[in-house]
Structure of POMP protein:
Amino acid sequence: NSRGTTSLLKDSISFTEVSASGLFEGYDLLRRGFTSVKNELLPSHPLELTEKNFQLNQDKTNFATLRNIQGIHAPLKLQMEFRAVKQVQRLPFLHSSNMAMDILRGNDECIGFEDILNDPSQSEVMGEPHMMMEHKLGLL
């Protein structure tokens, strides 16, 4: 009976759920840090989501303007440059200012909040360099 076999397969647990990286894996406190209820809450103000997505919205507007003025090649070229710049990074335990991305966006001559008081999302966290590299390379 083929119907009975397929229903048994749908009810069974997949292999990924049983593996070490699946459902039964414990929370890794060393890599992910402490859990915070504040991060899981909904935004407290309607403008909070807009402020979080400000750079993404600004990029979309700039790409649309470039496409209307210069054609489709200009935003595509700029997006390729953004991807190339994002791939080049320092070691995972060193802070990167990502100056090339600021130059591409035109933010290199502007002084903003993150220049004076630092960006809160990039707080200085120093971990064990060997463990962080092994995690990035997928050895752990």
Summary: The first helix runs from residue 2 to 11.
